[in-house]
Amino acid sequence: MKRLAVLFAVFIAVTLKSQTAEQIQPPERSDSAVAGFLAEQQTVVTSNNTIKLLKSGKEKFDDLFLAIKQAKHHVHLEYFNFRNDSIARALFMLLAEKAAQGVKVRALFDAFGNMSNNRPLQKEHLKKIRESGIEIQVFDPIKFPFLNHIFHRDHRKIVVIDGETAYIGGINIADYYIKGLPKIGEWRDMHIRVEGSAVDYFQEIFLTMWNRTTKQNIGGISCYPTHNSIDSGTRIAVVDRVPHKMPKLLRQTYLKAIASAQKNIQIVNPYFIPPRSIRKELQKAIKRGVRVEIMISEKSDVKFTPDGVFHVAGKLMKKGADIYVYHTGFHHSKTMTVDSLFCTVGSANLDSRSLYFDYETNAFIFDRKITEKIIQIFETDKLKSTLLTPAQWKKRSKWRRFVGAVADWIHVFL
After folding, report:
1. CA distance to 102, 129, 200, 268, per residue, from 106 (Å)
2. Most buried of the four, 74, 200, 251, 365, by CB within 10 Å?
3. Kind of pairing, strands 74-79 and 264-268?
């Protein structure tokens, strides 16, 4: 009996010591956890990059036009749509000038994206563009029966210049990113310019879509120049969503980022109707003491979207999330910051269309300075927003709540 008592005491002591060691061991930082996850998924985190945050449509177009003017070999553009307005005409005029100088200009746009805007490129526009020396192609033209083509759309917004500079974010080619819209007001959005090894991955994404669409075989060293090494460069992972090939990676990276958060999460997203898995992960984060702040827009370009967004936001508010309703126009930005350590900027909306169906690309940026800039924008935009409260939520009519529930259910088809 004495021997058993001694053995039991030793077992208890070892167990307590082990538990104490586990308690002392700090949890893995969220940025390290997400970078490690991406490495496991064979997604490279490059480190010799520089990033410029483009905080508005004007900043993006000013910067992009200047970079195109300096192009020497090629300009590659992949957009959900080019709206046939003044900014698009100015862009194609500049691209025609570069084509006349011998620069290869390749532009790709989504057929459904083109149809979905109120000033689409028509056949006569495409004819003139091609006559100016620009190669422009339509991704997955809409054909009978239409249902075969409506689901997996190319929602990316990518430009690659000379294989050295890339642009990515949420901004298509349209005047309203600068001028706004009468019924909506200011149209807010964000883009980034990237230089460094990460550009190779944006180039690969474009060329894969281009070669698939055109049956060409564009590539080679001219598209992938050697990048200068940069001491203490910005770490970036290019997370791409490709239906049937990499359909889960983007959603899983969002889930890992939320699950790894220890202090705070800030999200801005225009169509915030995330799938159940992300909603559950946000609720878990709130339960473990993470401050979750989400900014949604009072207005939208899709009629029933605000009701669907309010439906989801209201539920998360009841769980403890801080929901800010942006009133100064439409916030079309697609950003998330975690623990002030890292962030993501890209084309993906936090809804089922982006995370289960469309082609999307996001940059996950492991850099405190860039993350802090996005946080500062969020904090400034709080001044243009109101905090959603239970009292305000109760003021919503039963009809609006019903419409919100229905919009949540059907949003995948919008």
Report:
1. 12, 11, 17, 32
2. 365
3. unpaired
Whether 141 contacts 111, CB under 8 Å: yes
Residue 83 DSSP SS3: coil
Report the CATH fold assignment for 30-413.
Endonuclease; Chain A (3.30.870)
CB 373 within 8 A of CB 53: yes
What is the pTM for the complete model shown?
Answer: 0.92
Distance of alpha carbon 93 from alpha carbon 60, whole angstroms: 18
**Tens-binned pLDDT, residue by residue, of the chain (414 aa):** 555 554 555 455 555 455 554 456 678 999 999 999 999 999 999 999 999 999 999 999 999 999 999 999 999 999 999 999 999 999 999 999 999 999 999 999 999 999 999 999 999 999 999 999 999 999 999 887 766 677 899 999 999 999 999 999 999 999 999 999 998 999 999 999 999 999 999 999 999 999 999 999 999 999 999 998 877 799 999 999 999 999 999 999 999 999 999 999 999 999 999 999 999 999 999 999 999 999 999 999 888 788 999 999 999 999 999 999 999 999 999 999 999 999 999 999 999 999 999 999 999 999 999 999 999 999 999 999 999 999 988 888 888 888 888 878 876 555
Q: Is the CB of residue 39 less than 8 Å from the CB of residue 45?
A: yes
Residue spans of alpha helices (H) in 138-248: 176-179, 198-214
Catalytic residues: 155, 157, 162, 332, 334, 339
